[in-house]
Amino acid sequence: MSNIRESQSAPRQLAMVLDLNKCLGCQTCTVACKKLWNKDSGSDYAYWNSVETLPGRGYPAEWQETGGRDSEGAVKRGEIPDIDTAYGRAWNFNHKKTFDSAGKPGAQKEWLRPDSNPKWGANWDEDRGAGEYPGNNHYFYLPRLCNHCTHPACLDACPRKSIYKREEDGIVLVDQDRCHGYRFCVEACPYKKVYFDYERQVANKCIFCLPRIEEGVPMACARQCPGRLRFVGYRDDPEGPIWKLVDKWKVALPLHPEYGLAPNVFYVPPMSPPQLDARGRPTGEPRIPLTYLESLFGDSVGGALETLVAEREKRKQGRPSELMDLLIAYDWNQSFALGPKDAEVSLE
Amino acid sequence: MKKTLDLIAAPTGMQPGDYVPRVYSDRDGPQTPSVSLEVEHSTRGWRFHVRWPCPKPVQDTGGQSNLFPDAVALVAPSVPEAQWVTMGAPGLAIGGFLWRADREPLIRMRAEGFGTVQRSEAENVRQVTSEWNGGEWSLAFEVAGWKELDETRRLAIAVWRGSARERAGLKSVSPGWIEVGT
Ligand code: SF4
Ligand code: SF4
Predict the structure, then answer these.
(1) Which of A284, A304, B83, B166 is deepest in the core (most CB within 10 A)?
(2) Residue A139 lies in a domain
(3) A143 lines ligand 2 (CB under 6 A)
(4) Which ligand is the nearest neighbour of the Cα of A224?
(5) What pLDDT, on the 0 to 100 scale, is given for residue A20?
(6) Alpha helices in chain A (DSSP H)
(7) Residue A28 Cα, ligand 1 centroid: separation in angstroms?
(8) What fold does the segment set B2-179 form as a domain?
(9) CATH number where A143 lies
């Protein structure tokens, strides 16, 4: 990684783990984030947190096709996604027509629908997935946000040094006062998690809810998640959930580790039920192909799945499993380790 | 003064950051090969007329994530030692005016080295006209008082071609300062 000149890891790194076995695809996280931070009209198309159905084209469409670093560690040239074809434009609805047509005797009822004719959008291919029913059809949800990378491509790309990584927690931020809207960061981030506000002409991105974090309160996406699948803490805290899931149990893996950015958002990969043969009998082959999961989470995914299955079996037999108890999130406070004030969730 | 100037691609190898110098190292030759520059000085101040080839103009970037406008900057050194190729240096400022095809009015800019451009509202700029016609942009404007140019009588020019996604250091530039005389 000798070619990484600009980026440096922070002394302390805040991180998140998401257990994909528990995501409902409800988009509560997406809405919580959007409502809290990102209502500016120039980034109406932008979701700092998005949840996509995989296998699928994703948001923005085909984001996995470009970017990352080459074998020397140098950032590759990426693309700036188009709002109409890749992100999907925010919809306008025929509210007025619908309202005006209501209750008018004899009038044609106008149903609520988009005014425009969109061709793509976030979550467009929801629940489509891959495979053939009933033999091997499959899909899962992948919630995505900025990875607050240890080697952020966005930071390397900015000629104005408008992007920086905070010393105290490794959160990657855009200084919008410095930003001139050149969008090299949008181009370079292979996860496509920096956005351009076309009205204010500046970049914006997930801030890991830093004002909440500074108060010991988890991010809105994590705190609002009904699936309780998000874990938050510091990478180096051996008492916290991140270290346990990433380093101790090795079941939480970065997305596209081969991009070389060292993400600090990790995923517990999805287990899947077996495929069925022509006579409807389980084959023992998982529905989500291991090769597909490896293309997302790297070579360690098989080992992580084996650990998950083994620990689940233990728990089924009534034996203790620290891993399963943590993942089940019986005690939600254990999912968040942020500091003295983190125990904000009362289970009384 | 009236001149046709040959432009060069601004050297990407010198650009700040770890990305642009690497991924744009293959840029050979300027997107905009030449400009015609007319400069007049009178008691009213400076008057400029710039014309340059542009086969596919980008004037409207509204509501889009991936469009960059055509743009031109005229820049002067505050002191003779200030270098154009580095956008000046600390204590050796350069200053000028930026025109963007997608907005009015002009923008005043000042820099003391790569990546340090500060933008502000341009004052004393009048009579701005711009038109794209038959593959060419024509831009004219007057500046009533331009401190750097008044003092050093040197100018440099940068042209960004929006259709080639040029912005920041991706631009065609005059190789050095141009003496505008009096
Ligand atoms: S995910 Fe993208 S935007 Fe976030 S830190 Fe990494 S490179 Fe930057
Ligand atoms: S709120 Fe939780 S369960 Fe719902 S989509 Fe987001 S991560 Fe998945």
Answers:
(1) B166
(2) yes
(3) yes
(4) 2
(5) 98
(6) 28-37, 95-101, 153-157, 184-188, 210-213, 220-224, 241-242, 290-297, 301-316, 322-328
(7) 22
(8) Immunoglobulin-like (2.60.40)
(9) 3.30.70.20
